[in-house]
Amino acid sequence: MASFCRLVLLGFFSFSLSWVFSPPPALAQERPYFVAYDHYLEEPGNLEIEYFSTYGTQRGGNNFHAFWTEFEYGATAWWTTEFYLDGQTTFHDNTLFTGLRWENRFRLLKREHFINPVLYVEYENKNGADKILKEAEGHDLESDFLVANTEAQKEHIHEIELKLILSSTFKGWNFTENTLAAKNLSNSPWEFGYALGASRPLALKASAKRCTVCPQNFIGGVEMYGGLGDRHNFGLHDTAHYLAPVLAWNLPSGWTLRISPGFGLNDNSHRFLMRWGISREITGFGSMVSRSFGGHP
Amino acid sequence: MKAVAAALAVSTSFLAASVVLAQSRSSGKPPAGAAPKFDPVIYAELQKAPEKARNRTNPLQNDPDAVAAGAILFEQHCAECHGNSAEGSRKAPSLQVPEVQTATPGALFWLLTNGVVRKKMPVWSKLPEPQRWQLVRYIKSLGGPAPAGDSPVPKP
Prior knowledge:
By secondary structure, chain A is mainly beta. Chain A has helices spanning 2-21, 149-152, 285-292; strands at 47-56, 64-76, 79-90, 95-107, 116-127, 156-170, 173-184, 191-201, 218-230, 241-250, 255-264, 272-282. Chain A starts with a helix and ends in a 5-residue tail after the last helix. In chain B, α7 crosses α8 (129-141). Helix content of chain B is 48%, strand content 0%.
């Protein structure tokens, strides 16, 4: 219960920040994906505070609710850095903080091309009870989640994760393909995974009037992700795969709401994952911080 | 509790480092009272547009709503850096200057699409193509009525 209170307080603290800074309204143009990444980085100097939630079913065990808070900052136009705090509640078990992640994405080419590569480098310091399913890799299976939290949290995982993001935009559609390689630093083999995504705004032209519920503010799509085994046993054998429609609503106030029901595609996958997220973009965060330390914006 | 405190400390540290790095790359302080001046190199990016891109005409040239829609898009995505009236700020150059206003719509569209990532101008291809053309209509409208300005001109 104490852990849960801490997580609630942390979430409250994070979103309080967005109100305290009360930036000028700016429409975020966020993609709806939860797992896949496209090649669009955060605008320089902007901070996005995000909260995501995943409800997952568990055969032979207790369903769970995993969640993470994410701080995404545009360091430059070619480098976005993100920090995550993860937690989860397993029903009829307990709630706990499960770890942190530090993620960096680097745009590799300075201009827009038909295929745009982005390099993703992430360090994860988490425990075995982490259930946010931010990616599927290696031989991650639904049955791995059957371990009780008190037992699972004894396992400490230090992991490096690399992704090559290849993303294209064509006639309003975004198509993205992510290939993943992850290495647990405690002498485990490299594990592999993938994520694919396609999305499109419901309308391509902007309205000449200010509006909140208008088609161009909604982006719909679908993503698919799963594991590809490890260095010793590469392939689809003993891997989990998911397919998930995704929808994002970018509000003119700078808030973005996302929702995605996900479905397991084989017996190794959780049957159902319900994800939702809320985020707020703070424009000019870097300038605000700079001014507060006496610098110029 | 230690883990949460450590996480917050790390979060604060990397954000501060990112901010310091980003700010250290920004341009020098302009003279007091003067409008921010930008290196002409920034405007020269427009000249790098390939001829084919430069010669593209705005498909929304005759759309009566394009300027109004572009104005809203500008406020939402561009005003933070370029100023509310595109007059420029320390972060980004004015878009009212002749270098921009005499550029072809195709060149402006190309620059919006590709950004100038090494000069902090993001890639705006995340906006659908019609919205980028709406932005171009708005930006061109800042220079007043200029019928010739909206037609492709040969590369200098």
